Amino acid sequence: MYDLTGFQRDLLYVIAGLEEPHGLAIKEELEAYYEKEIHHGRLYPNLDTLVEKGLVDKGQRDRRTNYYTLTRRGRREIKARDEWEAEYIPEDFEA
């Protein structure tokens, strides 16, 4: 996951947290988090990159709507990232 941008990592986490989300659902989640509009020209090329890297699968719900799911590799990458973060942020960490 070291070669992903922060935005791409956030995409992975949103996809992991939703059940077969479509692009618009992912976009809405990220807009709520970032508190600003996410343009299609940013969203879909980054989703395609995650598909190309084998981290996300893209399926087709109908002719206009695709959905996204994590691959096994994508789940492993999130787990590895969580373990790496845990090395630096103790469980009892308080902000």
Automatic annotation (TrEMBL):
Q: Which Pfam families match?
A: PadR
InterPro entries on file: Tscrpt_reg_PadR_N, WH-like_DNA-bd_sf, WH_DNA-bd_sf
Give every Transcription regulator PadR N-terminal domain span: 11-79
Q: Which Gene3D superfamilies match?
A: Winged helix-like DNA-binding domain superfamily/Winged helix DNA-binding domain (1.10.10.10)
Which domain of life does the UniProt lineage start with? Answer: Archaea
* Protein name per Swiss-Prot or TrEMBL: DNA binding domain-containing protein
